[in-house]
Design a protein that fits this description.
Helix content: 25-40%
Distance between the termini: 42 Å
Structural class: alpha/beta
Radius of gyration: 19 Å
Strand content: 5-15%
Order of helices and strands: EHEEEEHEHEHEHHEHH
Length: 280
């Protein structure tokens, strides 16, 4: 990836969906640490792919500053104009000064910046208000199995049929409750009809056409899956990959889940899964 004409700080203008943006933010954060430079997140909301402002729900990343992008306005940081790659402004001034990406620095080929090899999401921490929502839902559920089923914008040849997720849930005792994370209202209704006696926390107000859920709903889904007793995700989904990676480094995986995560290429580290934490 060709870098910006800016050797003073690392600025990332994250793109695409929420978890693509999180992946970019935390990867370029590690780049800023390696370079010993200031780190700036330039956030631009997109109603179609990422409706909301991410840092309203999370604690600030240490040593990071945040700025809301204002379209068609000049914006500066540390005296340097922020210029997007490929923008009209870049053509006018002949340079760009911030990275624009929905992926990792090095496009996943640099292991030190890639969540499949390193603890990328160490500082992904909810603020107290958002964490209280997760705590309340977990209290209602008790011990539970979680699945993430991506449908609305994934290639059909990557998708697994509903029965795969149903079989995964059924592989655990019925004493465990169930949490369904999905961007597809149709899929959610199908699984709800099967497991409604074990589903204590659910909502059906899918309204955004591309992802069908709000940012807060997506954040709740991510962290309810991270905090589950057992998890099964979607092939090739940045959403599921984040969950698997966070669970791996927080020692929430058992050996079976670790092997599944490796099969889905969410984790590419060699060796056995780390011992599961004893808090469950």
């Amino acid at each position: 990836m060709a870098g910006p004409n800016n050797k003073v700080f690392v600025a990332i203008h994250p793109q695409s969906g929420m978890c693509n943006r999180l992946r970019a933010i935390f990867s370029f954060y590690l780049l800023s640490i390696q370079r010993k430079q200031k780190f700036l997140v330039v956030w631009e909301e997109c109603r179609r792919t990422c409706p909301g402002i991410l840092f309203e729900y999370y604690l600030p990343i240490p040593g990071t500053e945040y700025l809301l992008w204002k379209k068609d306005e000049q914006q500066f940081y540390n005296g340097i104009e922020l210029v997007k790659r490929g923008s009209k402004r870049q053509k006018e001034v002949g340079k760009f000064t911030m990275f624009t990406s929905g992926g990792e620095f090095g496009c996943g080929n640099k292991k030190e910046y890639c969540g499949k090899y390193t603890n990328l999401y160490k500082y992904l921490t909810l603020n107290d208000k958002t964490q209280s929502i997760i705590d309340k839902a977990k209290k209602e559920l008790g011990d539970y199995v979680a699945v993430h089923i991506r449908r609305t914008d994934h290639k059909k040849n990557k998708q697994e049929i509903n029965q795969v997720y149903i079989d995964f849930i059924n592989s655990f005792p019925k004493s465990l409750n169930v949490y369904i994370a999905t961007d597809c209202i149709k899929t959610k209704k199908v699984l709800y009809e099967i497991f409604k006696d074990r589903i204590k926390v659910i909502q059906f107000n899918h309204v955004i056409k591309s992802r069908q859920t709000s940012m807060l709903d997506a954040i709740i889904d991510v962290h309810m899956c991270i905090e589950s007793n057992h998890f099964y995700g979607t092939n090739g989904s940045s959403f599921s990959e984040l969950i698997y990676q966070k669970r791996y480094f927080e020692k929430k995986m058992d050996e079976s889940e670790y092997l599944t995560a490796k099969k889905k290429k969410a984790i590419l580290l060699e060796g056995a899964a780390p011992p599961r934490a004893q808090s469950e």
